[in-house]
């Protein structure tokens, strides 16, 4: 087995749907192991360890998604991200605390979500090489350089305080506030095309399990510091507009 | 007469970007950062269109849309949000939103949507 590959376990009774899912990752660094029943996946996980992601059919045989997940959590302390595949979205799915619920046929947006989810580990471990990119701001500015300067000033005066508040909320276990701050600052990172920071915000705000928050919050703080440092290196004149948070 | 557009957005950087795009296109803008202030603005001023985020402090964007559609049924509302869940997007349309644009927005998409909304209103 190639250990550098991300391991995904798919529980899907429909063989065509299995093939469709596998095809999406055929040329990627993702190894999809598919099972037609939850029992097969349970045995495999017991023998080979916890994968990076479990994609589980809601009506998985013989236990169904809820019981399969409960079994995995109770018996082997399963903690990896889980995506449930349902025939249609219904209120009964609310009780499943999973990363995302998707429906068949798999949409490009869902596959993209999974790819980004699997990249998360790399996001946490590798701070960005290019902290930001001004292409989007330049497109918005349409030749108005003052706008770019103004936008960066706003970033440096508003976002650090919100990151600080996010970290503080996390330390005080106010998880709802953590999610709200993450959601609120995500567009600022998108404007600087800092995909890693934006992805971290998105995951913290909408998908993270409580046990994943410590590493995600730490990674976001580090990523933000990298961006802020890079901006101030490239635009020292912005220092005048930056408020001191200390 | 320049059309007046109310922008309800709590991210200051995004709000500034919307203002720039709209003012370059000849619109007059007013920005507020939360739902409660947005409702106050709508009560006391005339606007031709509203651009609104969904997750806002104090009163959510959904509540502002609901209130606006009761008080000003013909006022076009464009939702600009980073939430892309299908059921939420559908819900905003059911509540009467004219369009739903996801962040990060392209100025051309936003302006096209505004033009369509204002044309339809006229």
List strands and helices in order, with pairings.
The complex is a heterodimer of chains A (246) and B (122).
Chain A: E1 6-11, H1 15-24, E2 30-35, H2 38-48, E3 53-57, H3 64-76, E4 82-86, E5 100-103, H4 108-125, H5 135-141, H6 145-171, H7 175-191, H8 195-207, H9 213-234
Parallel strand pairs in A: 1-2, 1-3, 3-4, 4-5
Helix pairs in contact in A: 2-3, 4-8, 6-7, 6-9, 7-8, 8-9
Chain B: E1 4-8, H1 12-24, E2 28-32, H2 35-44, E3 49-52, H3 61-71, E4 77-81, H4 86-94, E5 99-102, H5 107-121
Parallel strand pairs in B: 1-2, 1-3, 3-4, 4-5
Shape of chain B: globular
Tell me, what is the CATH class of the largest domain in chain A? Alpha Beta
Q: What is the CATH topology descriptor of the largest domain in chain A?
A: Rossmann fold
Number of strands of chain A: 5
Query: What is the count of β-strands of chain B?
Result: 5
SS-derived structural category of chain A = alpha/beta
The portion of residues assigned to helices of chain A is 55-70%
The succession of helices and strands of chain B, N to C, reads: EHEHEHEHEH
Assembly state here?
Answer: heterodimer
- End-to-end distance of chain B: 14 Å
Q: In what order do the strands lie side by side in the largest sheet of chain B? A: 2-1-3-4-5
* Unreliable stretches covering 5 or more consecutive residues of chain B: none
- CATH fold assignment of chain B: Rossmann fold
CATH hierarchy class name of chain B: Alpha Beta
Query: How large a portion of the residues of chain B is in β-strands, by DSSP E?
Result: 15-25%
Rg from alpha-carbon coordinates of chain B: 13 Å
Helix segment count of chain A? 9
């Amino acid at each position: 087995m190639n250990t550098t590959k991300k391991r995904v376990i798919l529980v899907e009774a429909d063989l065509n749907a299995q093939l469709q899912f596998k095809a999406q990752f055929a040329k990627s660094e993702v190894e999809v192991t598919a099972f037609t029943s939850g029992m097969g996946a349970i045995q495999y996980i017991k023998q080979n360890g916890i994968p990076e992601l479990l994609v589980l059919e809601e009506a998985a045989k013989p236990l169904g998604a809820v019981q399969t997940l409960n079994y995995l959590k109770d018996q082997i302390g399963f903690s990896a991200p889980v995506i449930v595949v349902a025939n249609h979205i219904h209120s009964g799915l609310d009780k499943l605390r999973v990363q995302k619920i998707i429906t068949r046929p798999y949409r490009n947006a869902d596959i993209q979500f999974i790819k980004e989810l699997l990249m998360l580990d790399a996001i946490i471990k590798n701070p960005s090489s290019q902290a930001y990119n001004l292409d989007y701001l330049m497109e918005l500015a349409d030749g108005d350089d003052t706008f770019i300067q103004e936008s960066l000033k706003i970033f440096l005066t508003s976002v650090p305080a919100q990151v600080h508040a996010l970290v503080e909320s996390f330390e005080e276990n106010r998880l709802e506030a953590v999610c709200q701050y993450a959601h609120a600052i995500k567009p600022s990172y998108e404007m600087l095309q800092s995909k890693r920071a934006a992805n971290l915000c998105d995951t913290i705000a909408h998908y993270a399990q409580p046990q994943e928050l410590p590493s995600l919050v730490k990674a976001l703080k580090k990523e933000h510091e990298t961006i802020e440092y890079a901006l101030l290196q490239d635009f020292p004149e912005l220092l005048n507009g930056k408020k001191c948070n200390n | 007469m320049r059309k007046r557009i109310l922008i309800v957005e709590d991210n200051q950087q995004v709000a500034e970007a919307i203002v720039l795009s709209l003012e370059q296109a000849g619109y007059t803008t007013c920005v507020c950062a939360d739902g409660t202030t947005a409702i106050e603005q709508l009560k006391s001023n005339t606007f031709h269109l509203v651009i609104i985020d969904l997750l806002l402090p104090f009163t959510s964007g959904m509540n502002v849309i609901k209130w606006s559609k009761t008080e000003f049924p013909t006022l076009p509302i464009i939702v600009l949000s980073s939430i892309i869940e299908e059921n939420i997007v559908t819900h905003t349309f059911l509540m009467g939103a004219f369009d739903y644009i996801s962040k990060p927005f392209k100025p051309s998409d936003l302006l096209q949507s505004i033009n369509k909304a204002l044309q339809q209103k006229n």
